[in-house]
Amino acid sequence: MTRLIHQPDPLLDLVFERIVDVPQELVWAAWTTPEHLKHWFTPVPWNTVDCEIDLRPGGIFRTVMRSPEGKDFPNVGCYLEIIKNEKLAWTNALGPGYRPSNPSTAEETACGSFFFTAVILLERHQKGTKYTALVIHKDEAGRKQHEEMGFHEGWGKALDQLVAHVKTL
Amino acid sequence: MTRLIHQPDPLLDLVFERIVDVPQELVWAAWTTPEHLKHWFTPVPWNTVDCEIDLRPGGIFRTVMRSPEGKDFPNVGCYLEIIKNEKLAWTNALGPGYRPSNPSTAEETACGSFFFTAVILLERHQKGTKYTALVIHKDEAGRKQHEEMGFHEGWGKALDQLVAHVKTL
Fold it and tell me: Which member of B57, B102, B117 has the closest CB to residue A94?
């Protein structure tokens, strides 16, 4: 039932899927602990220099990404669903306490001038974890912009970094 | 903890609070069952002619309001939090499956060109139920527009209709 609510629409949504050889619990920790997240969230040479996580529905998810030139890009959103080790959903269309976001603010983030909801699904797999990221946009332009920014490469590199990081724990 | 996430901001938010002499369970039923909701949701002479409720996080909350002149105004949003008999949160900034809403669509709804999140809180009270509605806007203009549309009078009349309706059950 939980899964059926997300029916990816190829015109509007982006899906990233991969099997990783680390347990669900470590992937979950990497996504939900600021100290871990900063290690992997932005593909080098970008950096995540700050991260705030209030892990409850309506709680803040804030990151600050720093470009190789040293420019900071803050991103603020809120969590929507938290099922430990299984499902994490958040959006930048709402801020903390579910307050609708101001589009003009979003335009100044590294994510560009569009809103999205991200759903991370983790499932046990014989080789470790099946990792699925579903990114839901409001329109085709948002999906296209995100795709052209290098969605698949970016999420792939970040996941490589995540796996490498949790293996050091 | 659940309550602390909502700190009303008088510039951005509207709060409606009242004690009603009916039990929490009936107020909850009135908010979460299409057949009940149609009886009270829009102050007469407006009507709610259609209602769709998928009561789970990310599930659709859709209503169609009909003006006295017979014009229909559809509203689509999704549920964010559902704590039976206690808390119901939804927003029109996201559609079903948490897809960010398109502002151009919202402009054509009876709610005007703004997004909001509504949180209904029900608490047991010696006289029945303490009913609190918190409506969260993205900016001051949204709050002002909603207030000038007659927020307090409208929510008051609708609650009168809700109470009258559940007393017939």
Answer: B117
How many Å lie between the alpha carbon of B77 and the closest alpha carbon of chain A? Answer: 12
Q: Is B66 helix (H, G, I), strand (E, B) or coil?
A: strand
In this prediction the ipTM stands at: 0.90
Closest partner residue to B7 (CB to CB) among A12, A56, A97 is A97
Alpha helices in B19-139 (DSSP H): 24-32, 34-40, 103-106
Q: How far apart are the first and last CA of chain A?
A: 34
Q: Which residues of B touch A12 (CB under 8 A)?
A: 99
Dihedral over Cα of B90, B94, B95, B97: its sign: negative
A102–B81 C-beta distance less than 8 A:
no
pLDDT for the residue numbered A102: 80
Three-state SS annotation for chain B = CCCCCCCCCCCCEEEEEEEECCCHHHHHHHHHCHHHHHHHCCCCCCEEEEEEECCCCCCEEEEEEECCCCCEEEEEEEEEEEECCCEEEEECCECHHHCECCHHHHCCCCCCCCCEEEEEEEEEECCEEEEEEEEEECCHHHHHHHHHCCHHHHHHHHHHHHHHHHHCC
Global pTM value = 0.91
Q: What is the pLDDT of residue B126?
A: 97
Instruction: Compute mean pLDDT per 10 residues along chain B, 169 residues long, and list them.
Output: 72 96 98 98 96 97 96 95 98 95 57 78 97 94 91 96 97
